[in-house]
Amino acid sequence: KAGVTQTPRYLIKTRGQQVTLSCSPISGHRSVSWYQQTPGQGLQFLFEYFSETQRNKGNFPGRFSGRQFSNSRSEMNVSTLELGDSALYLCASSLTGGLAGEPEQYFGPGTRLTVT
Amino acid sequence: GDSVTQMEGPVTLSEEAFLTINCTYTATGYPSLFWYVQYPGEGLQLLLKATKADDKGSNKGFEATYRKETTSFHLEKGSVQVSDSAVYFCALSVPSYGNNRLAFGKGNQVVVIP
Fold first, then answer.
1. Cβ neighbourhood burial of A93 (10 Å; 0-12, 13-18, 19+)
2. Could you tell me if B27 lies within 8 Å of chain A, comparing CB atoms?
3. B interface mutation test: which of A6, A104, A106, A112 has the most B CBs within 10 A?
4. Structural contact between residues B18 and B81, judged by C-beta atoms closer than 8 angstroms
5. pLDDT tens track for A24-69
6. A90, B22, B49, B71: which has the highest count of C-beta atoms within 10 A?
7. A10 Cα distance to chain centroid
C-alpha cells in the first residue's frame, strides 16, 4: 500500500506571497493532520481534518488554513508569508482519526518551505 | 495540557552499545504513546506504540514499556548500529472523537559511532 505523499517536496517563496501544500493520505484513511516542524519550536500541531471537516486546530494565526476533499486528500494554505513560516510541513494520515482503537498516524516526507 | 518531556541533548554512543532515551508525559486523559524516528531529510516514521498500561511496544530491536505509575515510556535498544543514527521523538495522543492531535517531545539526536 502506498504511503502518505506530499507535494511539492521543496518550495521557495517571498514574504507576502501565499502558498498551497498538498497531501494524499494512505488509501482508506479518513483523517489527515498537519504539523509544522522548526528547529526552535519543534513539532507543532496545525489542524486535523476528518471526512472533510476540520475537527481540531492548533494555536496558529488565521493565515494558516486547510481543507479536505471527498477523496480524503488535503491541502493547507498559508497566506501573507512571513520569514518565520520557514519550516518543514508534515502531513499525517490516520485510519479512523483516533476512533475504534486505531490511534497511530503515518507521516509523509514533508514539504520544506523557505520564505525569503 | 498534554505534554511530553524527553531528556535534554544529543546522545552519542559506540556501535553495539546499549541505548536508552527517557520519555515522561503528562496527560489529562488516558493516552496512547508512540516513538517516532526521523532520518535526515525525511519525515517521521512510526517506530513503535503502546495503547494501555504495561503494554510493551517493540520493533527493529527497539522496545518501550507504557508505565502508568511513573508516567514514562522510555526507549531502549540492546545493541545499536550506525544505521540507528537519527532523531527520536516521543509522542502521545489522547484519542477521542474530535481530538487526535499528537503532542511531541523535543526529540533526541542519536549518533552512533563505528
1. buried
2. no
3. A104
4. no
5. 999 999 999 999 999 999 999 999 999 899 988 999 999 999 999 9
6. A90
7. 14
